[in-house]
Amino acid sequence: MSNTQSIEIELKYVLMPEQLVKTAAWLDDNAMFVGQKHLENLYFDTPEGLLNKHRIGLRIRRWPGGAEQTVKLAGVVDGAMSQRPEFNVPATQAVPDLEQFPADIWPANFETKAVTARLQLQFEVSFDRRYWLFEKDGTQIEVSIDEGKIHAGGKQESISELELELKQGSEETLTYFADLLHQHFELQAGEKSKAQRGYELLLSANES
Known about the structure:
By secondary structure, the protein is α+β, with helices and mostly antiparallel strands. The chain is built from 5 helices and 10 strands.
């Protein structure tokens, strides 16, 4: 089974409902619209939250016609900017298999087979994603608007996000494109990932 590793470098912003239409229209004029798809992220952990304690995110992402399992390790977050090691493997099962990922990414004394056997679904994120591609001087930036819901412990929370992910090229061009957006919109940095927000909602649900 193929395994891909990368450092995810992205800028994330929270979009207010009144910003959605204008932001999408601006992107239509300044980037190339690629398409739209419905995505479902299913996040897994052990009952005691072992992965979360190690700042490891584990999910299966599903879309029409495919699925993959992903591990994201703790990285660096500075305002809207985040950089995280990410590992992706095609998913053919309902629960992630940690033994499909490189053995050296796990903490010391981490028994992947035993942990896999104890994995349980913790929360879900269901959303529609619109994609654009911005290219300049050999740099490619995938721009997306996500609209949907986080479902955890019987509670739900809306998500409305703008993400700029550097696919190849320079971080300077990523910053340049973000500056263009800031000239037209008042953007609020999204410092929490979907996984972080899901765990917080789950904790809130368990405490109520």
